[in-house]
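Quick one: structure tokens for this chain, please?
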Amino acid sequence: MERTNNNAIEDTGQDIGQYVGQNIGQVVGRVVGQDAGQDLSQIVDENASERIDIDARTEAIRGAVKAAGAGALLLTCLGNVFYATGTVFNGYYYLSEDGEPICFVKKSGAWGLDNAEHIRKPEQITKILAERGFETPATMLVEDGQIPYSEALRLQKAFPNTVLLPASQMMREVRSVKTPYELSRIIKGANMAANIFNTVPSLYKKGMTDNELWIEIDYLLKRRGHLGFIRQFSRYFEGNGSSIISGPNAINPSPYDYAVGGAGVGKALPAGANGTVMTEGSTVLVDFATNLDGYLSDTSRTFSVGKTPDSALAAHEVAITIQDMIVKYAKPSAVCGEIYEKAVKMAEESGYGDYFMGYKQKSRFVGHGVGIELDEMPVLAHRSKTVLKEGMVIAIEPKFTLPGIGAVGVENTCVVRRDGLEKLAPSLDDKIVSLQ
């Protein structure tokens, strides 16, 4: 975003991802006292201390701030605040090049915050910084892609001698590589999802609608510890991160960037289950995210009512083959767009290319990052030049939409390892499961 004389945010064009990819493993290793080259899976259980982990995240953020050539960073959006502090609060998180983080809290009630100052308005921040002996930074990173323009203007007035730089993309790149504690939470959620998927056939009753089955699954999710909400970065996403698609509803497009759409229950939320009765010969695609301790996993499985049509079985096998290719190919240094193109080519060569990732309306991706938010980096998408790094967590979801039958395919949350992807819930079978 080009800076004008009227207090806009300047774009440095700096590649922060390069810093993150080279240094996040070293930062985590140094803080937890482990060899920087060690596989993080070996230290998740014994060293997944949130406090130590937050220290590592702080250093990762600080390194990115320095790489951007900025004097300080100011965060206020909840996903970034949660990443930086382990909790959420109404206010601002401030980090300078060398000082300890300061939390400027507008409303009390935040849990376990260190080094907090209570304020009523952002204009008080510069005064408190001066009282603490900090100089006003010449440049400061703010969340250009998330905060309203009015807030950006207000922050510029609060820091009149500071050039504001864009932080949103930088923070997405920092957060794309997960630390041990973060990974341990996502693994826990993925395995809770696996247990619930194994329970789905026992929840089904003949004559059920998709909505009725979803109510049963949603109840079980919350009983098992799912927080019941999903954070998302994009303002074009809505919903609870979950859906059931059955039979003819599968071909209905959605305004959201989902692999499979669905009409939904009405115009207010046109996506997902729409009250379709799940009938003999149809497939039922169940897709839900779990939120445990603020971290998400995302999983899909395909079920069938009665005998699965041969075309659905064949397309589903293609989805599994595409997934297996991605698991093998998605190593550190692999390019996301190239992985996507390989998946599309495999779908086309199978004869099911017209039904891959949508029918009436296609989604041009085959996997997305997950963590604090459902739509994190990286995205295995058309033309994406993002390079994979070890420790990234991705939900891989090759799917097909078959008119008159429903949707088929799988989705598994995986972590990027040195030799490819590792499924975080490997015990869950990818095959279609009959509900009868």
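The radius of gyration is 23 Å.
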